[in-house]
Structures are given as structure tokens and as C-alpha cells.
Write a structure and sequence with these properties.
- The chain contains 8 helices and 10 strands.
- It has 323 residues and is of the alpha+beta class.
- It has 2 domains: 160 residues, no CATH class; 161 residues, no CATH class.
- The protein has a 6-stranded antiparallel β-sheet with strand order 1-4-5-8-9-10.
- A hairpin with a 6-residue loop joins strand 2 and strand 3.
Length: 323
């Protein structure tokens, strides 16, 4: 829960870092004034956000010597997909900011890779000194995979033919009473979800792994021969998600001394895989740089649409609209 909020918060940082730049036409050659402005803004924002992150997440928890933490399979690895996704878009957005200053293509790509890695590494180092968490090698691996996915595409294709997106929604949970092991205390899935994921739409969007889907949105047109008639804006989307997760590794928790546990039969933790359609907002036939810049920011989200679900329970489901 906590890690995805941090990860996606850094995505917001990345957006804020270069959103103002994306509305200005990139310079053809290095513009020293723009470069200094971007460097100062990036440094100030990064420093302020790092300090804010420490006070918001780590200050009230006991610190410890630097240590590692094995979090593989926590949240069915949905948090790892969050790391990949966030690192990818940090790379993309920082690349765009570098191009705005007039840096050439190669240097802009490396700027995206290095800054995306820096942002994510800051989180991992803070985790490493926290008693409650720890430095995760798996998180770092997914961070590197994310910026690599950006860098390789930009270097070899000069565009992002496979874009990574997120979708989520504020889903309801059951209010049916659940007894503690002692048979005395009562809670519900809704109460547990409120504790884990928060109450507001923003908190649920960022934290609720049960409602999130991470997508690889593939632009078919760009892989076909030149001058093909396939719509440039229509993508094939491949997604992954998980269900029935009310704890990092298992559906058991303690609340005010009472221990609650969900039956694996009634609440099996399972993985989901989706095939659906998506719209690449950056390829819509709009001849306006400012609108295209706005759409490029909104393009980090997968639009709701029809999808087919395959899951590890052996089920196949059709969703008319999947968020």
C-alpha cells in the first residue's frame, strides 16, 4: 500500500516537473536560459519533495541501519508493476523536459534514464534505513526495467510504440461482519479497505491494488508497413491486475489486539490478465501543439473500455467496460 503511493507520487512529481515545459515548443538547439531554469526547478522540486516524503512517511517510524527486505510476491507483485510504470513515465517526462531545453536526442534520452533512476533510488534508500521496510532489490530491478523500456524505444524507434498506463476506480467493498479469531470483535472488508487504502477517491486510486490495472498499450499502426490504413490512434492493450488482497502477503491482520483472517476459499488471492482496446491520445488528428501537450500528460491513464479477462482461477470473463 505505502510503496505504491510513494511510487505514484513520484509520477506526479515527474508530471509537475515537466508539465510547464511540455506546453512550450522545444528549442532546436541548446537554450542555456531554459536549461538553467529546468535544472533549478528540477533540483528545487526534487529536494523539497524528498524532504516532504521523509516527514510524511519515515519520520514517525523507527530508523535502523541500512538493511534489505525481501518483498517478492507482496501484493502479488502489483507494487513491482507500479515501480516499472512510474520509472517508465519519469523517464519519458524527463526526456521531454530535456528536449524542451534544446538538448539533443541522445543526451535527452540519458537525462530521462538517469533522472528516472535517481527519483526511484531515493525512495529505495529511504526504505533501506527504515525499520518497518527495507531496501528491495526487486523494486530496483523493476525501476531499471521501466527506464530501460523508455530508453530502448526512444533510441531505436524514436517514439514510444508501447506505452505503459494505469487504470483504477473507487470500488465498493462488503459490509458483511467478520468475526475475529477470538469470536468477540467484529470488522468488515469495507473497514479493512478503509484502513489500507483510505477513503477518498485519490487515495483509493493510488493505493488500492485490487482496483488497479497496469497496461502495456501497443500501437498497432506503428508496427505495420508505411501508409497502412489501420487507425493511428487505436491501440491493443495488455493488462495485469489482482484481486482479494487485504494484506501484503496474506489476508490476515491485527486490529487493536484482535486478529482477523479471511478464508482462502471465500477470498482467494488471484492474478488477472486482460486484453482490450485503448486510445493513444498523442496520435489523435489534432493539429495544435498545446492540446497535444495536454493529451500527452493525460495519456498516462488507460481509458475505460471493453476487455477480456483471464485469471489464475481458470476463469475467462468479458467486461463491457473495464476501468
Amino acid at each position: 500500500m505505502r510503496s505504491v503511493l510513494k511510487v505514484l507520487s513520484f509520477l506526479v512529481l515527474g508530471q509537475c516537473l515537466h508539465a510547464q515545459s511540455s506546453f512550450i515548443v522545444p528549442a532546436d538547439t541548446l537554450n542555456k536560459k531554459r536549461f538553467k531554469t529546468a535544472a533549478v526547478f528540477a533540483g528545487t522540486t526534487y529536494t523539497g519533495f524528498s524532504i516532504g516524503l521523509y516527514h510524511a512517511w519515515y519520520k514517525d517510524f523507527e530508523q535502523a541501519p541500512f538493511h534489505f527486505f525481501d518483498d517478492w510476491n507482496e501484493w502479488n507483485n502489483m507494487d513491482k508493476m507500479g515501480h516499472f510504470y512510474t520509472a517508465y513515465f519519469q523517464g519519458v517526462l524527463c526526456y521531454k523536459g530535456a528536449r524542451w531545453t534544446g538538448l539533443n536526442e541522445r543526451r535527452s534520452i540519458w537525462t530521462g534514464i538517469l533522472l528516472g533512476t535517481l527519483f526511484q533510488s531515493t525512495i529505495e534508500v529511504m526504505d533501506g534505513f527504515s525499520e518497518k521496510w527495507g531496501f528491495s532489490v526487486y523494486d530496483v530491478a523493476y525501476n531499471i526495467a521501466g527506464v530501460t523500456a523508455f530508453g530502448l524505444q526512444q533510441n531505436y524507434w524514436k517514439e514510444q510504440r508501447i506505452q505503459f498506463k494505469v487504470s483504477s476506480y473507487s470500488r465498493p467493498y462488503s459490509r458483511v461482519p467478520i468475526l475475529a479469531r477470538s469470536g468477540q470483535e467484529i470488522t468488515s472488508i469495507e473497514n479493512r479497505a478503509d484502513q489500507l487504502f483510505g477513503n477518498s477517491f485519490a487515495e483509493r486510486f493510488l493505493k488500492d491494488y485490487n482496483a488497479q490495472t497496469l497496461w502495456a498499450s501497443v500501437n498497432i499502426h506503428s508496427f505495420l508497413p508505411e501508409h497502412n490504413r489501420f487507425p493511428k490512434w487505436l491501440n491493443l492493450a495488455l493488462g495485469t491486475g489482482s484481486e482479494n488482497m487485504f494484506g501484503g502477503f496474506e489476508n490476515a491482520w491485527e486490529n487493536n489486539g484482535a486478529v482477523f483472517e479471511l478464508s482462502e476459499t471465500s477470498f482467494p488471492r488471484y492474478r488477472q490478465f486482460f486484453i482490450g482496446l485503448d486510445v493513444d491520445l498523442t496520435r489523435l488528428p489534432i493539429d495544435n501543439y498545446y492540446w497535444n501537450s495536454l493529451l500527452s500528460i493525460l495519456n498516462i491513464f488507460k481509458l475505460p473500455g471493453p476487455a477480456i479477462e483471464f485469471n489464475t482461477l481458470g476463469q475467462v470473463k468479458f467486461h463491457l467496460i473495464h476501468f
